[in-house]
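Z., the sequence and structure:
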Amino acid sequence: MNEKTIINYLQGHATEEEMALVGAWISESEENARRFFEMEEVHNMLLADAVPAERVDAALGRIVGEDSEAEPATERVGTLRVIRSVLKYAAVLLIGVLIGGAYIYIIGVDKKPVETIIAKAIGGTQEMMLADGTKVWLRDGASLRYPEAFDGDQRKVGLDGEAYFEVAKDAEHPFVVEGDDVNVKVLGTKFNFKSLKKRHNDEVALVEGSVNVSIPETEESVILSPGQKASLDTKSGKLVVNPINATLAAVWRDDLIPFENANLREIGDALKQIYNVKVVYANGVDTMKTYSGVISRKDDVASVMRLLQNSIPMRYTVKGNTLTILP
């Protein structure tokens, strides 16, 4: 499958043969279906943002080689540097990178610098750096909207999904992350932000520095300190602040699981976050004693538990999607 066939399908220009090819490709696997619908979602988003369809058509035609001046359709666009060089050919540009760990969609207008970039992590964690030096790790399925270059009093980005931020310090230009129901405003810090549109349960966990978490609709806000998490209570619509173990706030983003003065419940919460398992603690388990260390992430939770058994006096069982910790 190539970009040109997908683009023709999305734009309504596909031949019967191309439509059959796309249908067969989608049916081959759930992964193919997910990738296609992610592209379709962003394509519809662009049109919903008042980008005229004819301008999208014209630009896509140039990008995939229908214009003689355009770059070859077979040349794959893999970096923002190359993408910027292609912008001179397009009024509006939409590129889907089908091979790799993420989709990157670009919108450029009339040969001006890129206005909005939408990065989507597919098939794993996507690490990226923004123009101001801020580092972002997108969890699988998350998407981030951000400008090529920040302009104005604030550095604004938009998040759908879960991401970990290491924000570059700039006291004169606060960094603002806009979620579905909650916004986060910082000057320079490290935090994890989960914003899931379908669940409306935004969570912000602070690792370092200070952040202001607010609900734009009600103007309620709280200031977090390191080791605290603010969650949106879906019933009351208010922010609830609870203590957390900061070292375990974003263990999903790399191959190590660090824990510092963490008890078994906190370690279990980290395993729940990484492996999507239910954790049960049997009677007699000491959940108050704390441990510090770093272990390598493994393919399954049972392998991690075997490692932990070397240092923590406990037993465990894994049945289906349930991990039970025993004394």
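The longest helix spans residues 30-48. The radius of gyration is 23 Å.

Let me know what you think.
H.
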